[in-house]
Amino acid sequence: MDAAFLRFLLPADAGVCIAAVAVTSGLVSLTLVTTGDGAICPKCWSVTTTVHGRYRRTLHDRPCLGFPVSFAVTARKFACWRTDCPRRVFCERLPELAELHARATSDLTAVHRRIGLSVGGEAGTRLAAGLGLATSPDTILRRIKDGPDEPAPRPRYVGIDDWATRKGHTYGTILVDLERGTVIDLLPGRDGEAVKAWQAHLPVEVITRDRWPAYIQVATAAAPQAKQVADRFHLLTNVREAVEKILSRVAADVRAANAAVNAPADQAPTAPVDTPPASPSRRPLSQARSGGRLRGGSRGRSGSDGSKS
Ligand SMILES: [Zn+2]
User: Fold this and answer.
1) CA torsion sign, 263 to 267 to 271 to 276?
2) 243 vs 255: CA distance, rounded Å
3) Ligand 1 mean position to 138 CA, how many Å?
4) 38 C-alpha to center of ligand 1: Å?
5) Which intervals carry biased composition (Low complexity) (predicted)?
6) Does any domain span residue 290?
7) pLDDT digits (tens, 9 = 90+) for 227-257
8) What are the beta bridge partners of residue 164?
């Protein structure tokens, strides 16, 4: 491949140039050399041009035309000239290309982070492999943790409920963005005091909650404009309790009605001798064949036994 063609793989101000290109075993490998005149000491911010040595970095990048791409970067180590600086030697930074000590370019890192934020670690690994961006679940999760916090949109529908760090002993309060199904915050205690800190962040339209008095008070005080509704869990719980209460009250009547309905069938007299059964098709074949010749008890084993009256 042509080096000029592959130049588009690199950021415009990456501070490197392509020294060589090699395509082996379906892998595109670019040898890069840094081009800056000097570097800035990360401790004292002095500019230095004294090269102390060189070292090699390997960076993996996004695939190009379906081929995996890696950069072999020859970077430099610089010596700080200031005698009062605690950092004698430092590695050259390539902020536009990759983070310090990273083994993947910033572009590839960002893609992994976006995949992880979209579908999670395990599913993200399978998706990334299909896209030629093979990685591991741990790496995707690490990319998410190391990445900048995404600005969260202001929630419109918020759920407030308690949660237990130790059931029966220690409880906190959880705020949930019901539109996105994400946790907004975990707060200590469930007396509503911690929620008051959220007062400025609660210009919400709807708050769902249970009937815990502290939550009623804090929701009313913190977001008076919001409509408060009982959450689905507690509504269903209330319905279940109401149905159980009604059924327990009328249980005796239900049992009596059931007995009355089933009584004729349970106490039904045996079929008359000459009356054919109501559903001969459901009788055993032996009975069906001899049914017309039977006398007396035509049900049960009498027919099959061949007993006749
Ligand atoms: Zn320095």
Assistant:
1) positive
2) 17
3) 35
4) 13
5) 261-271
6) no
7) 999 888 888 988 999 999 999 999 898 888 8
8) 171
- Containing structural domain, residue 58: 1-102
CA 73–ligand 1 middle distance (angstroms)? 24
Interval between CA 264 and ligand 1 midpoint (Å): 102
Same domain, 167 and 134: no
How many Å apart are CA 244 and CA 241, to the nearest integer?
5
Question: For residue 30, which phi and psi values (nearest 5 degrees)?
Answer: -110, 130
DSSP-derived pairing of the beta strands 47-48 and 39-40: antiparallel
DSSP string, 271-288: PPTTPPPS-GGGS-HHHH
User: Token pair 């976006």 is at which residue?
Assistant: 114
CA of 182 to the centre of ligand 1 (A): 45
75 CA → ligand 1 middle, Å: 18
**For range 281-299, the mean pLDDT:** 40
Average pLDDT over the chain, rounded to whole?
A: 80
Helix/strand/coil for 305:
helix
